[in-house]
Structure formats: structure tokens, C-alpha cells
Amino acid sequence: MIDASGVMKSFGKRTILRGIDLTVETGETMVIIGGSGCGKSTFLKCVIGLHAPDSGTIVVDGTDITKLKTEAEIANYRRRFGYLFQEGALFDSLTVEENICFGLKYLTDVPTSKYRQIASDSLALVGLKDVEDFKPSELSGGMKKRVALARAIAAQPQYILYDEPTTGLDPIMSDVINDLILDLQKQLKVTAIVVTHDMKSAYKVGSRIAMFHEGRVLQVGTPDEIKNTADPHVRQFVEGLSQGPIKMKLKEFEADEAHDGARRGKA
Predict the structure, then answer these.
(1) pLDDT tens across 87-108, in order?
(2) How many domains does the chain have?
(3) Would residue 43 count as lying in a domain?
(4) pLDDT by residue (tens digit) across 23-82?
(5) I want to staple 86 with a disulfide (CB 3.0 to 4.6 A). Which of 49, 102, 163, 200 is the partner?
(6) Which are the contacts of 163, defined by CB distance < 8 A and separation ≥ 6?
(7) Which of 201, 79, 112, 99 is closest to 149 using CA atoms?
(8) Does a structural domain hold residue 12?
């Protein structure tokens, strides 16, 4: 279980998270939706320990991660997680096998003699084979995303965090990724958090969906409850309407996008 209570996070004078309260039950896939700059990715990075909340608590399996102080404690905690970055974040100079096994050097005691088999097994789980010796530049966008997902599961994590898993993919490949998320949840019995703007994906993979707005949680519900919500903010977002209570001027949108990009670059 992941239990976040009153989580706040600021960068300089800009407050991103304004008191997030969210519980992710063991074995479920929690989808987080919301506009750009509302704190979705920042919350993921707080959960995995890349950002330390300014206040509040995040308790994972009984451990309050805000109280972890040493690098060793944080590294040991992160071993529980796989993380799929928005752009994949593959190392261009490494082969597919080397990318997948990169974290095994630091997260596990697995001997290097087993790396090849682990890479092959992980690739099989995401529907790829015979690409271990390819470089990322030789792969399509969808294949890169699947290799990044294979890397996320190589160390057999208890939790997988997905940051915009279908961004930049065509509709068919997006649905392939959605099916993979569902298959991995069933096969590996992992608990997952998925950050996405893609409502088709959200409805398909989510056990529950949480709507973030201005650094707070507006509503949490099943896909059907979110589809039929009475909250005007949530309805405007899920239906993709320009008119409604969520107002964002173009300059504000551009500033949020630039800020999100800067945070991702630092991470």
C-alpha cells in the first residue's frame, strides 16, 4: 500500500503540491490525470524518493519515506520500484540488453552471467525478442517504449510507476502499451501508478482514477464514476472541453510546460 497524506512540494516560490491525500491499494493500478503543471509527475518523484516533500507523509508498506535520511536507506527503498520515464530515457550508447540490465548492477546481487537471460525474459514479457544487441537508434518509438518497460520490470519490482506511457505513440501502439500494463499487473501482481493525459488509456488500465487540479486531489473513483462525474472540473477535463471552470491562459500554459520540462531535465 502507498498512503500519501498532506503532501506539499514547492520549487522556489512556485508551489506544485498543495496537500495531496491519496491511497493506492496493494495490487491496484491507480491512474492520475490532470492538466499540465498540476503536480502529477512531481508526485511520482516524491513517491520514489527523487524529491523530498516539504511536508506531509508518504507511507509505503509501513515505511514513512519522508523519514529516510541516508543514501543507503533511500537506495534500498527504491529497489521496490520500477519506473517508466515519459520519454523512455534509454542510454543511446548502450545496447538494449545493457539498458535493461543497467539497474541490476546497483539494485541487485544478480551475477552478470544471468543478465542476458533476464534481458530476454523481460523483453518477452513486453512482446519483443531478438533485439538484445540493437541500439535504441535502431528501434521504433513503440519498441523503445517497450524496452524501457522491460528495464522497469527487470529487477522484479513490487511497484511500477508509469509517467505518460503512451505519449508520442500512435493510437494502435498506445493500445499495445495499455494491454502490456494490464498483462504485467496480472502476471507480476504489481501495484502501479500511471500518470497520463490519455483518457482512453486511463479508462482501460485504471482500477481507480484520481484527478489532480492545482496541486490537490479533486476526485478519486472507478473509471465509470469518473466518466459520470458531477464535478464540473473533472467533467471538463475528461471530456476535453475548452470551456468550463478550468481556466488557463496561453502564457500560463506555456509557463507550466516549460517548468515541467525543466523539472524533468533536472531529474
Answers:
(1) 778 999 999 999 999 888 877 8
(2) 1
(3) no
(4) 999 999 999 999 888 889 999 999 998 899 999 999 999 889 988 888 888 888 888 999
(5) 163
(6) 41, 44, 83, 84, 85, 86, 195
(7) 99
(8) no
